[in-house]
Amino acid sequence: MNEATLNQILAKYSQNYSLFNQNSGIWEAQYGPWPEYEHLEKSRVLFEMGRIMELLHLATRNEGALSTGGDLEYYSTVREALESVRIFLEKNTTEKL
Question: SS3 for 32?
């Protein structure tokens, strides 16, 4: 996922969540209480991270049987994808400080 795509996703959620500031009652009527929604979204991040690790485990548990002959290719691919997300977050969080 490249930076442009991540910026588009961020803009989509920024617009949606800014609606809470405009009218919290309407927003919460649609999505539920803000604190609960925020906790749920954080739990979804943890779920995705856990699922990624589970899938890596499943894909690499019999590394001698893989067509690539090892598991490093999978880990390197995921690491590079996560690195792009980390860089995006670092850039956006340090700009706001």
Answer: coil
- 7, 84 contact by CB (below 8 A): no
How many other CB atoms sit within 10 Å of the CB of residue 28? Answer: 14
The tens digit of pLDDT for each residue in 23-46 reads 999 999 999 999 999 999 999 999
Closest of 85, 55, 59, 83 to residue 70, by C-alpha:
59
Cβ proximity of 60 and 66 under 8 Å: yes
Alpha-carbon gap, residue 11 to 14, rounded angstroms? 5
Cα 82 to Cα 2: distance, rounded to the nearest angstrom: 11
- CA–CA separation, 65 vs 27, rounded Å? 51
The runs of H, that is alpha helices, within 23-66 are 24-31, 34-60
Query: Measured in whole angstroms, how far is the alpha carbon of residue 76 from the centre of its chain?
Result: 18
Identity of the amino acid at 81: A
What's the pTM?
0.77
